[in-house]
Model the fold of this input.
Amino acid sequence: MNKKDLIQALVDDCRTSQTKVEDFLHALADQFADALGRGEYVNMPGIGQFHLYAARQNGMIYYHSAQALRDRFKLREKKAPEAAPDTLCPKCRKRPRKILKQCSACTQQKYRAKAKGGKS
Done:
């Protein structure tokens, strides 16, 4: 659905003029941008929640779909967060990802050391 189709569908459903719908969509986009710029979450009932993750220079907008939307389209359920592993990396004491015994930085250091040792 493109912008023109969306505007026409809203005009038909809301029984209002096209200019009012266009004004509403522009205002909605402005409100979204302002709220995300302030670091707030934007919650659209029945659609989901949006938030800006700006830990890096180029931020990302995350979207979490609402349960009603997932039910409507028969999407799979959200995965429950997995329990954190009890093991820590023995060298740096960080939690390794997945099922590894060491964190990725220590694993890479180990393989780099082997590669250097093999070349000498």
